[in-house]
Design goal:
Layout: H1 2-23, H2 25-28, H3 50-68, H4 78-99, H5 103-119, H6 135-156, H7 162-182, H8 186-205, H9 214-234, H10 242-255, H11 257-273, H12 285-291, H13 299-319, H14 326-372, H15 379-382
Helix pairs in contact: 1-3, 1-8, 3-4, 3-8, 3-9, 4-5, 4-9, 5-6, 6-9, 6-11, 7-8, 7-9, 7-13, 9-10, 10-13, 10-14, 12-14
């Protein structure tokens, strides 16, 4: 019952807050400006204040939790680590939306978010299962994971409702994993509140969107997802043998398959063209899906559904198959391989369509001056009549 109350309350609060932010967005002075690093599918300028509702909902839920359980704020509490790092991620995104911060400063802030999680005991335990002295590799992997997921979600925020739908799918899978591992606890209620803020925002972000989350939202979402990824997917119990390590790596790969695919495709495509992967463009997986014929409103539904299915497979790998062996590794590896192959084909097909349209536009522009040259008027057309 408490979960339903928190969810409904968070949805209503987020929706009302976004209505307020939308109404007063001109006073904030932040919108979807068209700079070299911010390129959206829609050319319409809209407020980018939606991410504020995520953080305020999270903040109120955390404060309420700490009032009820003040002991959670003591020592190296994972709740305190989440609160501090998520607050920093929010500030990084807010500053970028408002002032356009330098990419290096943004990157250093993301690294600091990873360091904060490490300071509160949130580290990926992968290499240390082989040997305890490999802890520096786990520290590096943790920071790489946090920075990578934050940037991946930031890059994915390029089309109406896509990022929020995928993030909501991953959070729902995380709550299922949390219940399976620990049952209902305080973190579950925080995740419920965050989910509610996403749903409330989706009412205004679904195509055609009235408001965007901006970097304020994508940085916050990226940090939260990186956090749950460490807690519930990277750090599942595993023995130190090589076969179990395959499962340990497959689980987070499956859950985060969609953002990882998008970031990988875009990065490889831009590097192959000789351009920077950090400069925005309309060459994301979402854009190519529209080009090959997927209705724009169906793109978030498709990618969100894939996230749910992949997450359920990850839970199945952990919960229903205790005796993991090489055969299971091969079978479950076939799923992401097949999915990546399919979407790589669609991505390349969409890219070819985009190039063909670009070439056609160039040809039309080159031919246009010739069409504008007027023929000399005949005597009849000019009104001159010979005598």
């Amino acid at each position: 019952m408490e979960s339903i109350i928190i969810l409904v309350g968070a949805i209503g609060f987020s929706y009302l807050l976004n209505e307020i932010l939308l109404k007063f967005s001109r006073n904030f002075g932040v919108d979807s400006r068209q700079s070299q690093n911010i390129v959206r599918w829609s050319s319409t300028r809209k407020p980018t204040t939606g991410g504020i509702s995520f953080y305020i909902t999270f903040l109120l839920a955390t404060i309420l939790l700490l009032i009820i359980h003040p002991e959670l704020a003591s020592g190296k509490s994972r709740y305190l680590g989440l609160f501090i790092s998520a607050s920093l991620a929010f500030l990084i995104g807010f500053a970028d939306d408002a002032y356009g911060t330098h990419p290096l400063l943004k990157f250093l802030g993301q690294m600091l978010c990873g360091v904060i999680l490490l300071a509160f005991g949130m580290q990926i335990q992968f290499f240390t299962l082989w040997a305890p002295y490999l802890w520096p590799l786990d520290y590096g992997l943790t920071i790489f994971w946090v920075v990578g997921i934050m940037n991946s979600l930031n890059m994915l925020d390029n089309m109406d409702a896509v990022t929020t739908t995928i993030a909501l799918s991953i959070i729902v899978i995380s709550m299922g994993m949390l219940i399976a591992m620990e049952g209902l606890n305080n973190l579950f209620y925080i995740l419920i509140a965050i989910s509610g803020s996403f749903v409330g925002f989706l009412f205004m972000n679904w195509r055609p969107a009235r408001i965007y989350m901006g970097d304020t939202g994508s940085m916050f979402i990226g940090l939260v997802l990186a956090y749950v990824g460490i807690m519930f997917f990277w750090n599942v119990e595993a023995s130190p043998d090589n076969v179990s390590h395959i499962r340990k790596g497959l689980i987070p790969l499956l859950v985060f398959l969609v953002p990882i695919m998008d970031t990988s495709f875009v990065t490889f495509a831009r590097i192959s063209r000789g351009s920077s992967p950090f400069v925005g463009g309309k060459d994301h997986l979402t854009h190519q899906l529209v080009r090959v014929g997927v209705p724009e409103a169906m793109v978030p539904v498709m990618l969100g559904s894939i996230s749910i299915i992949s997450g359920l497979l990850a839970i199945m790998m952990w919960k229903l198959i205790p005796d993991w062996d090489a055969i299971y590794s091969l079978l479950f590896a076939l799923y992401p391989i097949a999915l990546v192959s399919l979407f790589a084909y669609l991505y390349l097909k969409g890219a070819r369509i985009a190039r063909m349209k670009e070439q056609l536009n160039e040809q039309q522009q080159q031919a246009e001056p010739f069409h504008l040259v007027k023929k000399p008027l005949s005597k009849q057309e000019s009104g001159i009549v010979s005598s």
